[in-house]
Amino acid sequence: MRSDSRLSRMLHVLIHMDAHAGRATSDAIAHMLSTNPVVVRRTMAGLRDAGYVQSEKGHGGGWVLARPLSEISLLDIHRALGSPSVFAIGISSDHAGCLIERAVNVELGGALRQAEELLLERFGSVTLADLAKSAVP
């Protein structure tokens, strides 16, 4: 299963946007991420809809932050991206009638829920400003 790097990539982009004056075009962001501007626009649209960035079309347009980094947490961006699964590990339902599979699924499911709750709690306690501070030597 492929890993979903959208959270990491968007955190990277947002911190760069804060550090540079002016608007960031979809083309410039796409170049930074080695991707297509359409992918950038689609991803940034979710962040815009959640109120973390703003956009303007046309000449001189582009993306800007709508809030200071100190008001945006990792959890905020995770949610704006659609709350993607944080684990590639999953449970099997190939043999729903098997007592062993059921026992395995109950234990794994509980452990995964508990781990996800802990991770998301941590995401909520870290702002993008915290990340930006740790990136500066």
TrEMBL record:
It comes from the Bacteria. PROSITE patterns: HTH_RRF2_2. It holds the Pfam family Rrf2. This is Rrf2 family transcriptional regulator. It comes from Pseudoduganella plicata.
